[in-house]
């Protein structure tokens, strides 16, 4: 199975401190995305327990690029709302400094998870309910890897948004092909 991605805007509750500490939700439970997927509460539990037992952490990447870690997630947990993360951008890295500034400026507005589906079921509405996921990483992203989950701001031209989404998909596909070689 290929690594999958889901996008969530930082939205309410995101904070970025002067020390480049960030926190917010990387995934929300019970919300249907444009791909007709719904993450069920508890879907990350086994993966998070397995990582903790092995003494490993969920990786913090820049744009899902495994060659560009930009910080560390100090806390990743499920609560009643979703998958909550808190971590530190490493300002000792160029991308970490850039990410901190882009977030402060409002130019970067999203988190995206990288995972593999371990268990899913179809519900009576034809939606894929993700019941068990193997979480690999949470990335800071400019364009979501799941472009259809991005909500256009009021006044944004939908055609322009679709063009940017298409460009992001082309770059993601190219990156995946390069990773295979």
From TrEMBL:
<feature type="domain" description="Prohead serine protease">
    <location>
        <begin position="18"/>
        <end position="154"/>
    </location>
</feature>
<dbReference type="GO" id="GO:0008233">
    <property type="term" value="F:peptidase activity"/>
</dbReference>
<keyword id="KW-0378">Hydrolase</keyword>
<dbReference type="Pfam" id="PF04586">
    <property type="entry name" value="Peptidase_S78"/>
</dbReference>
<protein>
    <recommendedName>
        <fullName>Prohead serine protease domain-containing protein</fullName>
    </recommendedName>
</protein>
<keyword id="KW-1188">Viral release from host cell</keyword>
<keyword id="KW-0645">Protease</keyword>
<dbReference type="InterPro" id="IPR006433">
    <property type="entry name" value="Prohead_protease"/>
</dbReference>
<dbReference type="InterPro" id="IPR054613">
    <property type="entry name" value="Peptidase_S78_dom"/>
</dbReference>
<dbReference type="GO" id="GO:0006508">
    <property type="term" value="P:proteolysis"/>
</dbReference>
